[in-house]
Design brief:
This protein is mostly beta strands and 86 residues long. It has no helices and 8 strands. The chain is elongated. It starts with a strand and ends in a 17-residue tail after the last strand.
Length: 86
């Protein structure tokens, strides 16, 4: 999954798949595939990795976006890394 969060400015988005936008107020809105929508400060959404779409700044103010790719952990207990402290 890809997380997109607006830190500053206004971002216009067009996703190829439907997404659910979480507004800074914690309200959620469903956006249909191919529809353009805007994100303000504190707004975010998740989309499947590799789904595609467009992110653009239609204004003159700078936009700052935090984006992260979230991968699921495989089943089972992860292996320990490093040496435990005594």
């Amino acid at each position: 999954m890809v997380l997109v969060l607006v830190e500053r400015g206004t971002l216009t988005v067009r996703e190829v798949l439907p997404v659910v936008v979480t507004r800074a107020t914690q309200d959620q809105e469903s956006m249909p595939a191919g529809a353009a929508f805007t994100l303000q400060v504190g707004d975010s959404y998740l989309s499947p990795s590799g789904s595609g779409g467009e992110l653009r700044n239609d204004g003159t103010d700078e936009v700052s976006v935090l984006a992260g790719i979230l991968y699921p952990m495989p089943a089972g207990t992860p292996e320990a890394v490093g040496t435990p402290a005594p």
